[in-house]
Amino acid sequence: MVMADRTYAGAIMALNSLQSNAEAVERTRRNSGKFDHLALPEMVEYLERIGWKQTDLNRLNVVHITGTKGKGSTAAFVDALLRSSPSSSTNGIGAPPPLIGLYTSPHMVKVRERIRLGGKPVSERVFSESFWDVWDRLGANTTIANPEHTPLRPAYFKFLTLLAFHIFLTHNVRCAILEVGIGGRYDSTNIVPKPTVTGITTLGLDHTAILGNTLEEIAAQKAGIFKKGVPAASVWQDSQSARSVIEREAQKVGASSFRFLSHSDADTLKGVQLGIDGDHQTSNAQLAVFLSRVFLESEPGTEVFSPSSPLLSRDEVRANNLTESERIGLASARWPGRCQIVRTKGGAGPVWYLDGAHTKESLEGCAKWFGSRSSSTSRTLIFNTTHGRNSEELLRGMVGGLFSSSSSSSGGEAQGDYFDNIIFCTNTTGRTGSSSDLTSVLDGTQPNLDAQNALASAWKALYPSSATSVYVMPTIEDAVHLVMEKGQGSEALVTGSLHLVGGVMSHLVAMGELDDNLCSKDEGS
């Protein structure tokens, strides 16, 4: 494929051409596990075809993070903690701080959000120049070991992972924080021979068609990021059998150390100011502090940051032993679209509560957060879910979370009347279609409004006597317009899909309510 337009917009068009269509995704689900053994060698081959050796990735001093819930938030906390380290701003008189790279997925509004340097998304110039460099190198080097299985250029996520590695290496990143896409063992991020430290956040049942139907199977996939001679850690997992699998995998691979962090220690962080809202963020913050301490105590960490004072024991992460710089880092962390509150029109418009929760457990956590923060009696829910998830189970879990929060009253059909309005809409951003950055081939797998009508039916089946007004809308723009008409004093919770939240955020950006870093004016950057 030859692209004449070699701008940022052209790069996004070319990138979108690499998305797997619905048929390919379904084939992957049917053949789950069949070609797993080829995934990592294929990724290494792509890396070599653009001019890098696999061992070059060790220069990035990687912090590798996986999990079902909270892995992106944890990565954002680690990024903020390292950038707030005293040594990162005092690395020689007049010297710039060591550059920290962050690779996450998905993006909320712009693709370049996935690749960050120094806490900010790479610029359009850096993204487009690097994109076309990688694109051209792959086109020029056509030596492929398994051409019947390996395409000339990798699919969307793999290409972005390759691009992140390329940008981090060419910009001399001193620590790269990598969030796994799906799973861990066969994920395209898992080709770093020797990361500095690896971590697992809370596990749950998600992507079961790919990762397995039990927590034990999923735990084995997640623990696949552990490496010989590399320290590893996990937040406390409620499932004893999942804990056993994780610990066994750490021993089998020969991790230099492994530990589960204490659940009670995580609870002590509830009184600590966190830049990412929600009580459930404490375990993510705890793991992030642990991972950052391990990195800073490691040989590459001391070479890069040259800490001037010994760190506290990395085995105990409690509120009473956080350093001042750690408190600053935790407070300064931002993770757009996750438990984020946006007050519009200087407080004279609706208040938006944005959270990309999309599993039963994470939706319960989202609902508890919203229930504890909501102060209005005029509430609208905007909801969508994707990829065949159980609509009724997700809705029931979310409402259950609302009525388990201290600020909500419980009881019978009253649960069905908590929201005045519920909008089930597609992930299509606007009436003229989605912006190129938000284009997803998978959106086309939902014929008309069938999925949204199914959600509406599920709600009515759960709460047949509810007086809530239920709307089915074709676009996010329609949903945003209805909420904005409600005006001051109204609140809107947007959840169920990160793509849905990203689409709403794109409209808030267009209205001037969010800046380029997707922070509202009262949040700062």
UniProtKB/TrEMBL annotation:
<keyword id="KW-0479">Metal-binding</keyword>
<dbReference type="InterPro" id="IPR036565">
    <property type="entry name" value="Mur-like_cat_sf"/>
</dbReference>
<dbReference type="GO" id="GO:0005524">
    <property type="term" value="F:ATP binding"/>
</dbReference>
<dbReference type="GO" id="GO:0005759">
    <property type="term" value="C:mitochondrial matrix"/>
</dbReference>
<keyword id="KW-0554">One-carbon metabolism</keyword>
<feature type="binding site">
    <location>
        <position position="338"/>
    </location>
    <ligand>
        <name>ATP</name>
    </ligand>
</feature>
<feature type="binding site">
    <location>
        <position position="355"/>
    </location>
    <ligand>
        <name>ATP</name>
    </ligand>
</feature>
<protein>
    <recommendedName>
        <fullName>Folylpolyglutamate synthase</fullName>
        <ecNumber>6.3.2.17</ecNumber>
    </recommendedName>
</protein>
<feature type="binding site">
    <location>
        <position position="105"/>
    </location>
    <ligand>
        <name>Mg(2+)</name>
    </ligand>
</feature>
<keyword id="KW-0963">Cytoplasm</keyword>
<keyword id="KW-0547">Nucleotide-binding</keyword>
<keyword id="KW-0436">Ligase</keyword>
<comment type="function">
    <text>Catalyzes conversion of folates to polyglutamate derivatives allowing concentration of folate compounds in the cell and the intracellular retention of these cofactors, which are important substrates for most of the folate-dependent enzymes that are involved in one-carbon transfer reactions involved in purine, pyrimidine and amino acid synthesis.</text>
</comment>
<dbReference type="GO" id="GO:0006730">
    <property type="term" value="P:one-carbon metabolic process"/>
</dbReference>
<keyword id="KW-0460">Magnesium</keyword>
<dbReference type="InterPro" id="IPR001645">
    <property type="entry name" value="Folylpolyglutamate_synth"/>
</dbReference>
<feature type="binding site">
    <location>
        <position position="179"/>
    </location>
    <ligand>
        <name>Mg(2+)</name>
    </ligand>
</feature>
<dbReference type="GO" id="GO:0005829">
    <property type="term" value="C:cytosol"/>
</dbReference>
<feature type="binding site">
    <location>
        <position position="207"/>
    </location>
    <ligand>
        <name>Mg(2+)</name>
    </ligand>
</feature>
<dbReference type="GO" id="GO:0004326">
    <property type="term" value="F:tetrahydrofolylpolyglutamate synthase activity"/>
</dbReference>
<keyword id="KW-0999">Mitochondrion inner membrane</keyword>
<dbReference type="GO" id="GO:0046872">
    <property type="term" value="F:metal ion binding"/>
</dbReference>
<keyword id="KW-0067">ATP-binding</keyword>
<dbReference type="InterPro" id="IPR023600">
    <property type="entry name" value="Folylpolyglutamate_synth_euk"/>
</dbReference>
<dbReference type="InterPro" id="IPR036615">
    <property type="entry name" value="Mur_ligase_C_dom_sf"/>
</dbReference>
<keyword id="KW-0496">Mitochondrion</keyword>
<dbReference type="GO" id="GO:0005743">
    <property type="term" value="C:mitochondrial inner membrane"/>
</dbReference>
<keyword id="KW-0472">Membrane</keyword>
<comment type="pathway">
    <text>Cofactor biosynthesis; tetrahydrofolylpolyglutamate biosynthesis.</text>
</comment>
<dbReference type="InterPro" id="IPR018109">
    <property type="entry name" value="Folylpolyglutamate_synth_CS"/>
</dbReference>
<comment type="similarity">
    <text>Belongs to the folylpolyglutamate synthase family.</text>
</comment>
